[in-house]
UniProtKB/TrEMBL annotation:
Classification via InterPro entries: UTP_pyrophosphatase-like, YgjP-like_metallopeptidase
Family matches, as CDD domains: M48_yhfN_like
Name the UniProt record assigns to this protein: YgjP-like metallopeptidase domain-containing protein
Pfam families, per the entry: YgjP-like (PF01863)
YgjP-like metallopeptidase domain mapped to chain residues: 28-238
Transmembrane domains' residue ranges: none
PANTHER family: UNCHARACTERIZED PROTEIN YGJP, UTP PYROPHOSPHATASE
Highest rank taxon of the organism: Bacteria
Amino acid sequence: MKTLSTETRRVMTPLGAMDYTLERKKVKNINLRVKHDGSVYVSASKRVPVREIEAFIISRSEHIRRAAVYFAERDVKKAPPSYTDGEELMYLGSKLKLSLIPDSREYAELCGEELQIHIRDTGNTQRVKKLADGWYDKQCKEVFFEIVLETHKKFVKYGVAMPQIKIRSMTSRWGSCHYTRGMITLNRRLIEAPRHCIEHVVTHEFCHFIHPDHSKDFYALLGAEFPQWRSAKAELEKTVIL
């Protein structure tokens, strides 16, 4: 669609001054979008007066504010850890305090609500990360494999064989099913989510051994084997931001 012109403008709203980008396009309606960086984008036909466009923005100012706050909070959750003393990390839906302890022996251990990193140099964040990652990798293997074993029991009646499990970091998917190879891949970051959220993802992938697509039959099976999948999916996407 051809853009006729673009300009940056400012409008006064009940919430204060608001900058927005206005693009003139051959569109029927006034279209408003809040981008991930909080900026406001509006497109409208050249025939629509600016006063009408800005009246629309003012009417949507609360929606714009909520969207900007949501994206800002999302970016904070998405930011990688700095691996400094006192930082909060997520594990199975709960917060863990990272505690750096000077020690000649280097290892990581869970003590109550603390992930304690014993390390010679507490300022060596790369070494802290490596020790923390090693601990998380161990938890992934133990927790994920336990959930896979439990979930597989529900799929024996469908003739599904125990799959090979791989764990890796992924930026856009919680898991994937390679049904022709008998393999399920799980996102390492699932370990940050509550256990039932992980169970939902594992069940979802098991369902693909029977229905490789996302057809009605697939969701009927998922609903039968994990009735609360919708709430678990919503909680997962809120708790862990990819």
